[in-house]
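Is this the right way to post structure tokens for a design question? Let me know if I should format differently. Anyway, here goes:
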């Protein structure tokens, strides 16, 4: 059975992942309004990934006999500026989430909760990948500039992203349902 401190930390992280999902959904809608459908698609897939991050934590908490306490999710902004501004915000947000995951991992170490340490390693790796992906897009935006032709080039590339349920989902209740 998971202890109270670890349980509180995981519930807090579920809330953070659900906020991330809403933030990216709001960003996706913002891009859709600007007819940048590829950018909108990339962010919609990101929304789906964040939703998985939240439910994967939730299922883990349940599997350890923990109590899920969903909390209030703050409303995300609705305006995000240029595409460079938007992706700069995504990068900063992901860096903040990396800090949260690292903090949660430190709680697991302090509480000598080995199972949670192993579980959280997936999130540690995921954050490395997320920050790298976002940095790559931001670098391209800076390199190419934001003239319509360059934006449309990148928009076509981002339209190709599809959501793939992580292989790790095979071990969760989500998959079995
Ligand atoms: Fe769930 Fe983008 O971190």
């Amino acid at each position: 059975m998971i202890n109270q401190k670890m349980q509180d930390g995981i519930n807090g992280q579920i809330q953070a992942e659900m906020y991330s999902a809403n933030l990216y959904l709001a960003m996706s809608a913002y891009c859709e309004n600007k007819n940048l459908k590829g950018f909108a698609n990339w962010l919609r897939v990101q929304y789906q990934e964040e939703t998985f991050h939240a439910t994967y934590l939730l299922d883990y908490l349940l599997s350890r006999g923990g109590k899920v306490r969903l909390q209030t999710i703050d409303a995300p902004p609705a305006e995000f500026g240029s595409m460079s501004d938007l992706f700069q915000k995504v990068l900063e947000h992901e860096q903040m989430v990396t800090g949260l995951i690292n903090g949660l991992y430190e709680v697991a170490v302090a509480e000598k909760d080995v199972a949670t340490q192993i579980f959280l390693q997936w999130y540690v790796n995921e954050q490395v990948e997320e920050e790298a992906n976002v940095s790559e897009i931001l670098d391209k935006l800076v390199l190419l500039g934001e003239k319509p032709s360059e934006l449309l080039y990148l928009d076509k590339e981002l339209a190709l992203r599809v959501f793939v349920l992580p292989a790790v989902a095979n071990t969760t209740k989500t998959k079995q349902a």
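Format looks fine. Someone answered above. Worth noting: Residues 17, 20, 50, 53, 94, 97, 130 surround MU-OXO-diiron (CB under 6 Å). Helices lie at 4-33, 37-63, 83-110, 114-144, 148-158, 173-176.
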